[in-house]
Structure to design on (779 residues):
């Protein structure tokens, strides 16, 4: 391993952060955790969400420095310009048009600061039909369709308790920003990176959504030979079971005594095989009764020994106490000025040479204003330096990735970089990636790649492997600990062939530690970190989230790859990066913290009916459907009361924020009665006219979204021809970057589709290829 330096891979970068809410601060907080200097620009009086979002802000804004500027004044803008002159990145999350009205539009900034990378995060994008809808998490989920995707304990749309729209937007912003910085190293040009919370939600839905001329290629839950569900055990606790590993379905049947009633494949690859009606009836009911006979600890240990994924459901923040989370250093303690001493989720990806460091608690309002501006006279005006000739190729063209990963979480990392132009070769075993049996899932994880299928245990393929190791900038895999060493693709072996290689390992639990050999499959780890209980609502049995840890792990992996590339470009140094799925899943709860007395702040917010977080941030039934409102701000609350014709301000129970919080249930009852009197469209028209954020939750949205011409125009959806399925439509690039041509979208490859092409490129002639194929070592 390389020797670690004093800070993370982004050391030396300066980021000016004018974002607020959850997505922007989460993005810049990620950059701060990995060594960037982040200067948080707040308005006079402080960020207006400081009180409402005190818990998530304690994590997202840790390690930053705060300055106060009034950007509506000439003096405030000039001081911001002084700051931007010394910066590398400017992040903002204003609604479309606000930056231009403030004189901070990209074109004007580019004229002053040609090397500055500007990142904009909006609710729904800078154009399109939802451009002016306020970017609240709940409204994004309502309009994207995730309230129809989320499993629930009742019929109708389910309020989404996991903020994966902002989580996705934050990581997409970090990916795009670091990619723009990498290209800036070559041409000296700053770029505009734009993404949105809608894109963030789509980054998770990509795993679920796909459409062809033959209809959606998405199997009905419970229709195939895979068991991904939760079971109640004899002790009243729940476990999540997933039989997705090769051979695990058959092993699970044997443990349950069902091997004589349901067939399993001799190859061990079952997930793409449909169940017969008789088999489905058995799997729907019999395991439920069997699991109820033994306590959860029995099933966890028994199935672990049987090599079947079985993971406990835990309440939020309980994972902080687990040995593997502690071993992975995934809990950090911060003395927050508002909350006191709290435990928070630590940075997820671990870098051998440049480990991340939490740089301190979130700052007070304007805590560093004087110090920051006093230091500017000694700072180089790097953003003002003249650029070179613009290189407008796809942003990551020339970056080469060798991906030995399987299933979804790991391979999604390299797919995200393929979307930006990276060349990715998928090296898979002769039997192929086991997830190929789930067409939509496989296509999402491996779009944009080429496939070569080799038996790496055969001596005749060693030469091809070694040349690929020399070729790649990044090697990625997510095999279980020990497998890479047996195949000769461990870090030290790769480093011997390519000393500056960036090696990204994405194990389930970690490369070491007490749980390193446990199986990990989504969405079981969501249950382990408390998300299963979060999305289910208070007092309810756990459910799994619509946005799970597979895309989340892939997003973190892509950020880690980009940070590794940027660090290497500036220093020449490669390194080992570890991105365990456990760590990435824990970041889904980074908006929660635990106090010294064990209280989980920011958790257990969803009501038992899964309607919302409070009377003013929830779903309501109308005379003909549903409505989602977010009226937590005082002005929005007053406007809502006016629309409904209710004298809420005159009622002592609701006259102040604290009073409304104390009387949330009676307030929700009043609003529920009122909203049921009229149709959704009528309410939406009046609420929009009064400026109250609201939306109608769309029903199941996959086909409609993927066939909507607006989404093709924006580039969010790609349409590609396939010889078997005809037109295939799938989610594509979820960020827009100026001065960079979009990479052509390519469908995920067939198994070994490019084997001969790649071998010829490596110098093999046809005779040698025929010989190795005759030996059964390639497909």
């Amino acid at each position: 391993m390389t020797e670690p330096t004093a800070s993370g891979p982004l050391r030396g970068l300066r980021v000016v952060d004018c974002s607020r809410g959850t997505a922007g601060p989460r993005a810049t907080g990620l950059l701060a955790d990995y060594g960037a200097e982040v200067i948080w620009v707040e308005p006079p009086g402080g960020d207006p969400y400081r009180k409402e979002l005190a818990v998530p802000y304690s994590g997202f804004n840790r390690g930053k420095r705060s300055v106060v500027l009034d950007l509506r004044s000439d003096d405030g803008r000039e001081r911001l310009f002084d700051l931007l002159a010394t910066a590398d990145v400017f992040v903002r999350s204003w609604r479309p048009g606000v930056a231009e009205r403030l004189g901070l539009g990209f074109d004007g900034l580019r004229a002053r600061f040609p090397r500055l990378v500007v990142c904009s995060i909006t609710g729904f994008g800078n154009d399109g039909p939802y451009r002016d809808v306020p970017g609240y998490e709940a409204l994004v989920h309502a309009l994207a369709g995730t309230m129809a995707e989320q499993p629930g304990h009742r019929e109708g749309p389910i309020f989404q308790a996991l903020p994966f729209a902002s989580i996705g937007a934050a990581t997409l912003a970090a990916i795009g920003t670091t990619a723009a910085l990498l290209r800036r190293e070559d041409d000296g040009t700053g770029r505009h990176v734009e993404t949105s919370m809608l894109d963030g939600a789509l980054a998770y839905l990509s795993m679920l959504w796909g459409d062809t001329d033959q209809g959606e290629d998405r199997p009905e839950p419970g229709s195939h030979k895979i068991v991904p569900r939760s079971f109640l055990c004899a002790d009243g606790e729940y476990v999540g079971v997933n039989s997705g590993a090769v051979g695990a379905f058959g092993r699970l049947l044997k443990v349950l005594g069902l091997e004589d009633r349901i067939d399993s494949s001799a190859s061990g690859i079952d997930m793409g095989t449909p169940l017969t009606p008789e088999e489905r009836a058995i799997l729907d009911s019999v395991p439920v009764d069997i699991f109820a006979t033994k306590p959860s600890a029995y099933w966890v240990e028994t199935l672990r020994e049987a090599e079947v994924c079985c993971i406990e459901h835990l309440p939020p923040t309980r994972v902080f106490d687990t040995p593997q989370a502690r071993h992975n250093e995934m809990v950090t303690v911060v003395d927050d000025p508002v909350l006191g001493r709290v435990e928070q989720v630590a940075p997820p990806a671990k870098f051998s040479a440049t480990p991340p460091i939490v740089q301190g608690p979130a700052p007070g309002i304007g805590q560093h204003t004087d110090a920051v501006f006093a230091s500017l006279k000694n700072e180089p005006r790097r953003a003002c330096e003249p650029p070179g000739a613009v290189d407008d190729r796809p942003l990551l063209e020339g970056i080469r990735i060798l991906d030995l990963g399987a299933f979804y979480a790991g391979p999604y990392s390299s797919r995200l970089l393929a979307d930006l132009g990276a060349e990715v070769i998928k090296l898979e075993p002769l039997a192929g990636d086991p997830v190929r049996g789930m067409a939509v899932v496989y296509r999402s994880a491996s779009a944009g790649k080429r496939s070569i299928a080799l038996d790496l245990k055969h001596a005749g393929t060693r030469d091809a492997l070694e040349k690929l190791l020399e070729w790649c900038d990044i090697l990625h895999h997510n095999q279980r600990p020990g497998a890479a060493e047996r195949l000769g693709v461990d870090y030290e072996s790769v480093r011997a062939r390519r000393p500056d290689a960036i090696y990204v390992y994405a194990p389930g639990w970690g490369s070491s530690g007490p749980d390193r050999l446990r199986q990990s499959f989504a969405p079981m780890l969501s249950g382990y970190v408390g998300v299963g209980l979060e999305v289910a609502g208070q007092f309810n049995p756990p459910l799994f989230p619509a946005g799970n840890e597979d895309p989340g792990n892939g997003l973190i992996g892509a950020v880690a790859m980009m940070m590794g590339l940027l660090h290497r470009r500036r220093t020449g140094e490669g390194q080992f990066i570890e991105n365990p799925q456990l760590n990435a899943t824990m970041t889904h709860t980074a908006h929660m913290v635990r106090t010294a007395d064990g209280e989980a702040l920011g958790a257990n917010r969803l009501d038992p009916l899964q309607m919302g977080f409070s009377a003013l941030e929830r779903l309501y039934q109308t005379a003909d459907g549903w409505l989602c409102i977010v009226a937590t701000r005082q002005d929005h609350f007053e406007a809502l009361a006016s629309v409904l014709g209710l004298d809420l301000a005159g009622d002592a129970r609701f006259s102040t924020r604290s009073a409304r919080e104390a009387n949330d249930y009676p307030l929700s009852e009043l609003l529920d009665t009122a909203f049921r009197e009229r149709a959704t469209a009528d309410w939406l028209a009046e609420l929009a006219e009064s400026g109250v954020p609201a939306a109608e939750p769309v029903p199941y949205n996959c086909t409609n979204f993927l066939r909507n011409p607006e989404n093709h125009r924006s580039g969010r959806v790609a349409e590609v021809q396939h010889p078997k399925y005809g037109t295939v439509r799938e989610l594509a690039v979820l960020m827009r970057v100026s001065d960079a041509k979009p990479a052509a979208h390519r469908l995920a490859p067939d198994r070994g589709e490019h084997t001969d092409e790649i071998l010829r490129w490596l110098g093999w002639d046809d005779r040698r290829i025929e010989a190795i194929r005759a030996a059964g070592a390639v497909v």
